[in-house]
Every structure is written in C-alpha cells, then in structure tokens.
Design goal:
single chain; alpha/beta; Rossmann fold; 2 domains; ten-stranded mixed sheet; 29% helix
C-alpha cells in the first residue's frame, strides 16, 4: 500500500512539473499515457535541430563526414590560400577511380590537384566512394554501368554528392554558378551521371578515361562536357567493350558514342572542329551548343589508363606528357 501511495505522489509531482493541472483521485487510478506522450512530444518538437555546419575559416586541408543513406560518408576539401570569405569561389569535386579512395585522388604525387587548385584559385573536394573496408580504401562509385559494390548495392551516390555540395555551401562562400565535377575512370563515369541528374548544380563536367554508362539521361539544362581518353587505354577501351585488364565485368560504352550522346543532349549542331594538335595529342570541340554549352574531346596517342600529366598509382609509371589533364580541364571550366 505504501508503495502505491508513493507512486501516486510521484506521478502527481511529475504532472505538476510538466505544467499541467493535477488530476482528481479517480483519474489518477487510470494511466494517462496519451497526455504524458503529448507532453513528451511537445518537448521533443521544441528541442533544437542539428547544429549548422561550422564555417571553414582557414585555408588548407579539411576532412568531414556525414550520414547519408544509412552510411557514414567521408570527403576531403582543400581551400586555397587566396580564399576570401567575402568573395564567392569556384568549386571542383574530383572523384577517384574504382578501387581508389579520396586520399589517392588528393595525393599530389599522382594527380597534382591540390597544387593546381592553389595556383588557379578554386576549392577542390575529394569525396570517398563506398568500400567493404573500414579504411575506405578500394572504394567504388555507382555510375550506372559501373562499378563494384556501389553499383551492385545501388548506393545513392548522387544523393551523397548533393549532401556534400549542400554541406560545403554552408561552410564556404561558393559561387553556385561555378560548381564543377571531374573524375578518373569510375569517377569520370560518375561525373557523367551527375551531369544527367544534377544539371541544376554542375555547370560542366570532365571525365578522364571513363565513358558514360548511364542507363537513362535527361539533364534539365545543358551541361558542358570535356572527355579525355588515351587511344591505348586497355581498361576502358576507346572503342568500347570490356578491357583486357578490366575486373568490372562491364561492357563499356565507346568514347565516340559517349561524345555523340552529349552532343545530341546539348543540341550541338556544328561539326567537330580541331582546336589543339600537339605531338601525341589532339582536341576537337562541338560548339556552339544549346545554352552556350560545349562538348570537347581530347585524345592522347599513349598513356593507357591514366591521368595525362600525372603518375599512375599502380606501377608508378607516368601517364602521357603530351598534355596536362589539369590544365585542359581548368581551361575548360574557367570559361563557363
């Protein structure tokens, strides 16, 4: 009996503490779960939401993680020394190849992208794909036709990229009209998917050694496209098919078909026009296109499956030195 009285007293004190009138004794004998539940819900509704991302106030390297699609996803960002919070700055998202990770893509020994961002003056972002490993290594992107577990598990990489862009636009003063995507191999394929599904965000994309394997593509506005590929690429063959060194079991779309697809999507009616020819490489453009867009193809005679002007991660063999992918891409982006 004593315990019953003690419980009733505690309940009355709880109700009084909640700012509610005490109940008659007869009512106290019945559970008041709906009323207590409503009070708890009101307390929860009034609780502050997640804190806004903390602004980046200093240049250099930064690492962040966020939750998306039930997964913890990571990305790196390099802010150049000339960044001024009062002035909007261009931003380039750079996607690693299949089996790579954000740390490899951000390594200047291989790609030189951090030093190039410092020189040219843009924020460069290195998102990480999904991996079975806790370290995040051997990661892939869901680019449609390719690649790995990201494709097989239908990972929402487009949604992840949207979240990264939204996160960074709260941390930095980013020019919304000058956001670009670039990638190597599987990362280049993802860049094509972003052009299809995030044309409202990306002004232009560039793909190195990765063709467009999207099953469907209907960009809301024209997106300028630069494609860079070696004739002797043995993984993503220039003329399509499954490369001899490919472990993706993908029948890759050819470079000519990829370029023709985007010329059609962007309404490029003019014939291809040669705009660069140097020993070992050439470029041609299809412009003008609808909305001022451009579709450009740059071909190297050698270099295999690599980033022109960079160094291969496996085997440490150099790519072609006939042209620099970094220079070609930024020249293309900076004119948008």
């Amino acid at each position: 009996m004593t315990s019953t009285k003690t419980w009733a007293l505690a309940l009355s004190l709880l109700i009084l503490g909640a700012g509610l009138a005490p109940l008659p004794a007869s009512a106290q004998e019945r559970p008041e779960r709906p009323r207590l539940r409503d009070w708890l819900q009101q307390r929860q509704d009034g609780a502050p939401g997640p804190a806004a991302p903390v602004p980046i106030t200093r240049p250099g390297e930064h690492r962040f993680s966020l939750r998306h699609g039930g997964l913890t996803r990571e990305y790196r960002v390099h802010v150049p020394a000339r960044y001024d919070p009062a002035t909007p700055m261009p931003m380039v998202l750079s996607f690693h190849g299949g089996g790579g990770n954000m740390d490899i893509q951000a390594d200047d020994r291989y790609y030189g992208l951090v030093s190039h961002a410092e020189q040219a003056g843009y924020v460069v972002v290195f998102p990480n794909g999904t991996s079975r490993l806790r370290s995040g290594k051997l990661a892939t992107w869901n680019a449609g036709l390719c690649c790995g577990q990201a494709r097989d598990r239908q990972i929402d990489d487009v949604g992840f990229v949207r979240a990264v862009v939204a996160d960074l636009r709260q941390r930095l003063n980013i020019d919304p009209g000058r956001i670009f995507a670039q990638g190597m191999s599987n990362g280049g394929m993802l860049s094509y998917r972003l052009a299809c599904e995030m044309a409202d965000t990306f002004k232009a994309i560039a793909s190195v050694a990765g063709t467009d394997g999207t099953p469907a593509c209907a960009p809301s506005v024209p997106v300028s496209v630069l494609h860079i590929h070696a004739l002797d690429d043995d993984r993503v063959l220039f003329n399509g098919g499954s490369g001899s060194a490919s472990d993706t079991h993908a029948d890759f779309v050819s470079v000519p078909d990829t370029v023709a697809k985007w010329a059609r999507l962007n309404g490029c009616e003019a014939a291809p026009r040669r705009v660069l020819e140097v020993p070992g490489a050439w470029c041609e453009t299809r412009s003008p296109c609808r909305g001022g867009a451009e579709v450009k193809l740059c071909v190297t005679e050698t270099g295999g499956h690599s980033w022109p002007g960079g160094r291969k991660v496996r085997g440490e063999q150099p790519g072609t030195s006939a042209v620099s992918a970094n220079e070609l891409i930024w020249d293309f982006f900076s004119r948008r």
